[in-house]
Design brief:
Elements: E1 3-8, H1 12-23, E2 28-34, H2 37-47, E3 51-55, H3 63-73, E4 78-83, H4 88-96, E5 101-104, H5 109-120, E6 125-126, H6 128-139, H7 155-165, H8 170-177, H9 181-195, H10 200-213
Parallel strand pairs: 1-2, 1-3, 3-4, 4-5, 5-6
Helix pairs in contact: 2-3, 6-10, 7-9, 7-10, 8-9
Length: 215
């Protein structure tokens, strides 16, 4: 199955490079691109791509704000924030906006292709160099408190949350627990609602927070 990707970056040469890089993979097609946030918000809902690769910093807004609005305008599109800056605040904002991935532009070509593939299947991905900072920030109090929040989850929901933190997709979780993929999605909807979270990425960060505090 071909993964349909949309690119947002204010530099045309960067978009051209990203397009060539991604389309060198047989299973990825770039279906559209934009140089501004306004243009992206106009185009993405009509194209309904599987993944939107969004530059964090734009002349008229930010890729993070685009990500936040796409959750309503194009719910099936999963966003990856791509940035040149190792910015703690932007990283945390991206997670809270519902981004499925946050990758530094220093990433290798193959790792970026892998990131797009992973996110397209429902996975969540953070650049390893910044994951520790997110966990530290969350442990500092920005997020639901454990154990009160976990007390709301059923045993099955806790197990699914644990597998999400390991980076498994809904399909993989279903295979592991002998559940239909749709059933896993329903469980995840319930988990997010009970924890007061908006995305799988936030859930994964929270699960890692819990794991860290129990060590």
């Amino acid at each position: 199955m071909t993964i349909r990707v949309f690119l947002l970056d204010d530099h045309e040469v960067v978009r051209t490079g990203l397009r060539q890089l991604l389309e060198s993979a047989d299973d990825i097609e770039v279906v559209g691109e934009a140089g501004t946030a306004a243009e992206a918000l106009d185009k993405v809902p009509a194209l309904s791509p599987d993944v939107a690769v969004l530059d964090a910093r734009l002349p008229d807004d930010s890729g993070i704000e685009v990500c936040r609005q796409l959750r309503d305008l194009s719910p099936s599109t999963r966003s990856v924030i791509l940035t040149s800056f190792d910015d703690d605040e932007a990283l945390f904002s991206a997670i809270m906006a519902g981004a499925s991935g946050y990758v530094l532009k220093q990433v290798t070509a193959q790792d970026l292709v892998s990131a797009v593939r992973h996110v397209s299947t429902g996975g969540s991905l953070l650049d390893p160099s910044v994951t520790a900072k997110v966990l530290e920030r969350v442990r500092g109090g920005d997020g639901p408190e454990e154990p009160d929040a976990l007390a709301e989850l059923t045993a099955q929901e806790r197990r699914i949350l644990e597998l999400v933190s390991e980076g498994l997709t809904n399909r993989q979780i279903g295979e592991r627990l002998a559940l239909a993929e749709k059933t896993v999605r329903n469980y995840m909807t319930s988990v997010l609602a009970k924890l007061g979270l908006d995305s799988r990425t936030q859930a994964a960060v929270f699960a890692n927070k819990v794991s860290e505090t129990r060590r």
